[in-house]
Write a structure and sequence with these properties.
- The protein is α/β, with parallel strands linked by helices.
- The chain has a single domain, classed as Nucleotidyltransferase, domain 5 (2-Layer Sandwich).
- Helix content is about 45%, strand content about 15%.
- The chain is built from eleven helices and five strands.
- Helix 6 links the parallel strand 4 and strand 5.
- Helix 7 crosses helix 11.
- The longest helix is centred in the last third of the chain and has 21 residues.
- The protein is globular, with a radius of gyration of 17 Å.
């Protein structure tokens, strides 16, 4: 369905895919846990993902892998996600995990919260191992939140000021339980529920097509705003 989007080609096939309604889209919602946030000195320690079609979440269609990381653990990251060196000593390296992850994603749209962080680490390894970055279309739920907050400023969903714009903070604001946060699969599930909450709001704001959704959910926009706001980021 998204083969033309995957390779970023222009033409009738891409236009046809972008013109399809949002409810027809297939998504893989992803999160990673890291040894730390330094883009060159840290690495992925776990990947979690699950499938969605339109607004439907499939809890039984999940992906979760612990990874023996390329770099040493930072003590502060272990405190956050609870994964220790002994937990991953016998686990496969990032190459095997990414190969399986790519198979799980197929051509679906990849969704994440502040996903530019995950992409920085995924694409670094993709380029090193496979000579190419991730080619799937990508959506950022933080970008969607920021866009919706401005577009629907008078909507009841945004009537109360948000105290914290992290994933747990926004999820809690929309009534989503955040127990188990900082496990990659659980964070992916929280992100999927948040995206599920956003879909009817996006429809209220006039977002009907996959192309429009990809435009307003551009991860670079949310990443720039998140960095400029000085928000704390998790590993």
């Amino acid at each position: 369905m998204f083969e033309s989007l995957k390779f970023h080609k222009r033409g009738k096939a891409l236009q046809a895919a972008e013109d399809r309604p949002v409810e027809d889209a297939r998504y893989v919602v992803v999160d990673t846990e890291l040894t730390g946030l330094h883009e060159k000195k840290d690495s992925i320690v776990s990947i979690g993902a699950l499938r969605m079609t339109g607004g439907r979440i499939y809890p039984g269609k999940t992906f979760y892998r612990l990874v023996n990381p390329e770099t040493e653990f930072r003590a502060e990251s272990v405190v956050i996600h609870g994964i220790t060196p002994s937990d991953v000593r016998e686990k496969p390296g990032i190459g095997a995990a990414l190969s399986e992850f790519l198979g799980f994603c197929g051509d679906d749209i990849v969704v994440g919260h502040c996903i530019y962080i995950d992409l920085n680490f995924i694409n670094r390894e993709m380029k090193r191992l496979f000579k190419s970055p991730l080619r799937n279309p990508v959506l950022d739920t933080f970008s969607l939140y920021e866009w919706l907050r401005k577009k629907l400023a008078s909507h009841k969903a945004f009537a109360v000021p948000l105290r914290e714009r992290s994933l747990p903070g926004i999820a809690d604001y929309f009534g989503i339980p955040v127990n188990g946060a900082h496990n990659a699969l659980m964070d992916a599930f929280i992100t999927a529920q948040l995206f599920q909450k956003f879909l009817p709001l996006l429809q209220d704001a006039g977002i009907r097509s996959i192309g429009d959704l990809l435009r307003v959910g551009n991860p670079s926009k949310g990443g720039d705003r998140f960095r400029s706001a000085g928000e704390a980021m998790s590993f």
